[in-house]
Amino acid sequence: MHGEGSEYGLLPLLILLGATVAAAPLARRVGLSVVIGYLAAGIIIGPFGFHLFRDPATIISIAELGIVMLLFLIGLELKLSRLKAMRRVILGFGALQLIITTLVLIPLAIYGLGLGLAGAIVASIALAISATSIALQTLEERGDLQTPYGQRTFAVLLFQDIAVVPILALIPLLSPWQISNGTGFWSGIEKAATIGATIAAVFFAGRYLVNPLFQLLARANAREVMTAAALLLVIGTGFAVQQAGMSMGLGAFLAGLVLAESSYRHELEADIEPFRGLLLAIFFMGVGMSIDIGVVRDHWEILL
Questions:
Q1: Which residue of 26, 46, 125, 131 is surrounded by the most CB atoms within 10 Å?
Q2: Which tens digit of pLDDT belongs to each residue from 246-261?
Q3: CA-derived radius of gyration, the chain
Q4: 133, 149, 136: which is closest to 93 by C-alpha?
Q5: Average pLDDT for residues 206-217, to the nearest whole number?
Q6: What pLDDT score does 175 carry?
Q7: What does the pLDDT look like over 260-287, one tens digit per residue?
Q8: For residues 121 and 103, what is the distance between their CA atoms, to the nearest angstrom?
Q9: How big is the CA angle at 14 (ends 12 and 16), to the nearest 5 degrees?
């Protein structure tokens, strides 16, 4: 450690591992999801608990890779043909959920919270979008991800992730300054074009470049090289899509989708899986650390 309270060193790592080991069985023992256990552990060891960690953002930024890897593995299992078969559920059911939930929440935000129309629209859209990481982790630990309702839930979550881009492009249009200036519309068009080009590049690289690259690396006969290449592929794709304006998780999902037909699919899955579970656990603890108990106490009526 570099000093007392430092979050870089051996002791913080031991605390995180110990909390992970304790949280999951305790949550199971009382009949709760392990996600709840990790969130509770984060609150206890975080800045609003025993102050063992002071900067949750540092942990979350690294552990968020667990979500990226989870979505990559889901993409590997889906395949493009299966996703194509789900297109009606994704575009139909997903769009209905987002639109209907938003329309129901807008009057509640206006008359219940006293927000103006623009504020009510933004708040309602935000509340209509789910936490993909929590929903997918809960489905997976219950073994329900491959069930019909699990697939419909995933379709809704995928549509929400895709819809975030046009939503972020359109929200500035609610501003009177943007309406009079007109820059919001052209900014949205530019962002959409950038995202389209990035996704096309991901599909091209996955289809024509990845297999030859892995064939070349396989000749080195070094397992750590293949593991490093798998991590580079997942994180690099997620980073590229994030730079274009979408989430890292969606970028990793697209990479998994393209590589589902690859001859190295099972090897990629075996290399990524060990990292995914532990990083997800640490991510949820980081989220727990960031929960300000004082704010929850002072605004519990609005939150409820």
A1: 46
A2: 788 888 888 888 888 8
A3: 21
A4: 149
A5: 85
A6: 64
A7: 888 888 888 888 888 888 888 999 999 9
A8: 8
A9: 70
Length of the chain: 304
Residue tagged 């051996």 (tokens)? 10
From the list 98, 67, 68, the residue with the least C-alpha distance to 241 is 68
Torsions phi, psi for 152 (to 5 deg): -65, -40
Identify the burial level of 65 via C-beta atoms within 10 angstroms of its C-beta, where 0-12 means exposed, 13-18 middle and 19 or more buried.
buried
**Sequential DSSP letters for the chain:** --STT-SSSHHHHHHHHHHHHHHHHHHHHTT--HHHHHHHHHHHHSTTTT-S-S-HHHHHHHHTHHHHHHHHHHHHHH-HHHHHHTHHIIIIIHHHHHHHHHHHHHHHHHHHH---HHHHHHHHHHHHS--HHHHHHHHHHHT-TTSHHHHHHHHHHHHHHHHHHHHHHHGGGGSHHHHHH-HHHHHHHHHHHHHHHHHHHHHHHHHHTHHHHHHHHHTT--HHHHHHHHHHHHHHHHHHHHHHTS-HHHHHHHHHHHHTTSTTHHHHHHHHHHHHHHHHHHHHHHHHHT--HHHHHHTHHHH-
Please answer whether residues 136 and 151 qualify as being in contact, where contact means their C-beta atoms are separated by less than 8 angstroms.
Answer: no
Q: Are 265 and 259 in contact (CB under 8 A)?
A: yes
CB 75 within 8 A of CB 256: yes
Given a contact cutoff of 8 angstroms between Cβ atoms, the answer to whether 74 and 136 are in contact is yes
End-to-end CA distance of the chain: 40
CA distance 187 to 170: 9
Can you give the pTM of this predicted structure?
0.76
Helices 265-289 and 10-29 cross at an angle (nearest 10°) of 90
Backbone angles phi, psi at 13, to 5 degrees: -65, -40
The answer to whether the CB of 33 falls within 8 A of the CB of 138 is: yes
pLDDT at residue number 41: 94
